[in-house]
Amino acid sequence: MPVRQLPETIVNRIAAGEVVERPASVVKELVENAIDAGASRIDIFSDGGGRRKIVIADDGSGMTQADLALAVDRHATSKLDDEDLLQIRTLGFRGEALPSIGAVARLTITTRHATEPHAWTLNVEGGDKSPIAPAALSQGTRVEVADLFFATPARLKFLKTDRTEAEAIREVVRRLAMARPEVAFTLAGEERAPVTWAAALPGAPGQLTRLGDILGADFRANAIEVRAEREGVIVEGFAASPSLTRANALGQYLFVNGRPVRDKLILGAVRAAYSDYLPRDRHPVVALFVTLDSREVDANVHPAKTEVRFRNAGLVRALIVHALKEGLAREGRRTAANSASSVISTFRPGSVPPGNWDWRSSPSYPVGGGAGFATPSFAEPPQAAFDVGGPSADVRHHEAAPDLLDRPLGAARTQIHETYIVSQTRDGLIVVDQHAAHERIVYERLKASLDANGVQRQILLIPDIVEMDEATVERLVARADELAKFGLVVESFGPGAVAVRETPSLLGKTDAASLLRDLAEHMAEWDEALPLERRLMHVAATMACHGSVRAGRVLKPEEMNALLREMESTPNSGQCNHGRPTYVELTLTDIEKLFGRR
């Protein structure tokens, strides 16, 4: 078949397919244009999941008649000062959004610039432009997109249900609203009740207000402000305390120079920063804003502008990890699951409907039904049915020094079920899980020992030879010096193999082949040797778990108070290294609410 030049209409539709993937893509492009136009209010409406109609109205600067004529031509843009594609200071810049939308839908643009006596309107249907005509509009721009993909019916078959497409639009608007708290957004449509996010004040307080409006009151209550700066790169934003987690990573948001992006970089960095706080199957909620020189990031690597590429990805990743770790360490005790409301709801009378509660379903009821357990009888003395014996340890009020009540975790009063320490503070009480608390203390000691003495190595009598493809071997050998810092000594053994001569002593007998392959995969993704460090920390966590005070051990009063004092001086004492809370707190006010005193 001979080579031939495709018609312009076909070329435009092929190009449109790269930018307009679904209705949410249209909303993203048009809202970004409105933000670049300086809008302070943006209204979004969709019908039929966006396939029947999308309307975006803003109060931005608008366009002149001449600008409107060029706006729907391919590769025409107002977003570049010159031909330098590295100097990108706007959200939309490719010059393909409007012509791409016009190539596959019925597009109507009505706009008014401050210098024009009235507004102008332009229609584009399947790539065919109509003459520009006068119109009525007070200010800004109104863009209407109808019958999306009518010019390319095959694309309609790949769209999902109206509800799914509407939810994708909602997610796009949510991300853009988080990136621009100073702009008011209204999202409406037949699929949903109207949602309005009012413009917020500038700075961190306004940013947190907008994030709380979108991510929920729980995020606002648990948010920890983070910030780090190095070599002209600034990372700031808010991270939820480890007590607020999700089952997936969809609650992690990254914004680069005000642009919402999805990047593997943030997943690895956040996972590394929270590795000491969360179970492996839980994910934190974070919103991070990265600001750097536009020449240090390439925003032109994806047609839909959803991905970026950093010139110094290692610096950005390290800064994210540092900012998150510093913030979590600063709010160490706050990161515990100390939500009084959740504790109160557990104890509140009436939280279980009367008549629906079976005492046999109580956690106190022994496993295995009634084996060896007699049902209380009214013929028995009342006290006998509820007699659970005395506490494991008892610390009378006069036996504790009064100044201990002023300490953050108070003075130990008793130990119950040989597992939990109850302490008293000036304005409440605290219940401590002795095993989880001591586990964190031992773990932090092990980490400090590793930092002070380095990772101990064990020399292999016979080196392990691990065969890999050449690219993987080159990747590992290039990072050999860095791996050696963590106790893993490797060297090239021909073009397709690596010789392992020393391994970390903490790992004991290990499968060198699987270790190296895992490391190589993580290096390809993150360009870091951190997974080995995390593996060492996992070993340290296991050692801490086995070396700490176990549940069921009776503690003396002085041992309980010593444990509380160690918790107060230990970083990250709000959780054990598996992510479980080490203590919960009830203030005197909370207790009075339980008994109706307030």
TrEMBL record:
<dbReference type="InterPro" id="IPR014762">
    <property type="entry name" value="DNA_mismatch_repair_CS"/>
</dbReference>
<dbReference type="GO" id="GO:0030983">
    <property type="term" value="F:mismatched DNA binding"/>
</dbReference>
<dbReference type="InterPro" id="IPR038973">
    <property type="entry name" value="MutL/Mlh/Pms-like"/>
</dbReference>
<dbReference type="InterPro" id="IPR042120">
    <property type="entry name" value="MutL_C_dimsub"/>
</dbReference>
<dbReference type="InterPro" id="IPR014790">
    <property type="entry name" value="MutL_C"/>
</dbReference>
<feature type="domain" description="DNA mismatch repair protein S5">
    <location>
        <begin position="211"/>
        <end position="329"/>
    </location>
</feature>
<dbReference type="Pfam" id="PF13589">
    <property type="entry name" value="HATPase_c_3"/>
</dbReference>
<dbReference type="GO" id="GO:0032300">
    <property type="term" value="C:mismatch repair complex"/>
</dbReference>
<dbReference type="InterPro" id="IPR013507">
    <property type="entry name" value="DNA_mismatch_S5_2-like"/>
</dbReference>
<dbReference type="InterPro" id="IPR014721">
    <property type="entry name" value="Ribsml_uS5_D2-typ_fold_subgr"/>
</dbReference>
<dbReference type="InterPro" id="IPR042121">
    <property type="entry name" value="MutL_C_regsub"/>
</dbReference>
<dbReference type="GO" id="GO:0016887">
    <property type="term" value="F:ATP hydrolysis activity"/>
</dbReference>
<dbReference type="GO" id="GO:0005524">
    <property type="term" value="F:ATP binding"/>
</dbReference>
<keyword id="KW-0255">Endonuclease</keyword>
<dbReference type="InterPro" id="IPR020667">
    <property type="entry name" value="DNA_mismatch_repair_MutL"/>
</dbReference>
<dbReference type="GO" id="GO:0004519">
    <property type="term" value="F:endonuclease activity"/>
</dbReference>
<dbReference type="InterPro" id="IPR037198">
    <property type="entry name" value="MutL_C_sf"/>
</dbReference>
<dbReference type="InterPro" id="IPR020568">
    <property type="entry name" value="Ribosomal_Su5_D2-typ_SF"/>
</dbReference>
<feature type="domain" description="MutL C-terminal dimerisation">
    <location>
        <begin position="412"/>
        <end position="555"/>
    </location>
</feature>
<dbReference type="GO" id="GO:0140664">
    <property type="term" value="F:ATP-dependent DNA damage sensor activity"/>
</dbReference>
<keyword id="KW-0540">Nuclease</keyword>
<protein>
    <recommendedName>
        <fullName>DNA mismatch repair protein MutL</fullName>
    </recommendedName>
</protein>
<keyword id="KW-0227">DNA damage</keyword>
<dbReference type="InterPro" id="IPR036890">
    <property type="entry name" value="HATPase_C_sf"/>
</dbReference>
<keyword id="KW-0378">Hydrolase</keyword>
<dbReference type="Pfam" id="PF08676">
    <property type="entry name" value="MutL_C"/>
</dbReference>
<dbReference type="InterPro" id="IPR002099">
    <property type="entry name" value="MutL/Mlh/PMS"/>
</dbReference>
<dbReference type="Pfam" id="PF01119">
    <property type="entry name" value="DNA_mis_repair"/>
</dbReference>
<comment type="function">
    <text>This protein is involved in the repair of mismatches in DNA. It is required for dam-dependent methyl-directed DNA mismatch repair. May act as a 'molecular matchmaker', a protein that promotes the formation of a stable complex between two or more DNA-binding proteins in an ATP-dependent manner without itself being part of a final effector complex.</text>
</comment>
<keyword id="KW-0234">DNA repair</keyword>
<dbReference type="GO" id="GO:0006298">
    <property type="term" value="P:mismatch repair"/>
</dbReference>
<comment type="similarity">
    <text>Belongs to the DNA mismatch repair MutL/HexB family.</text>
</comment>
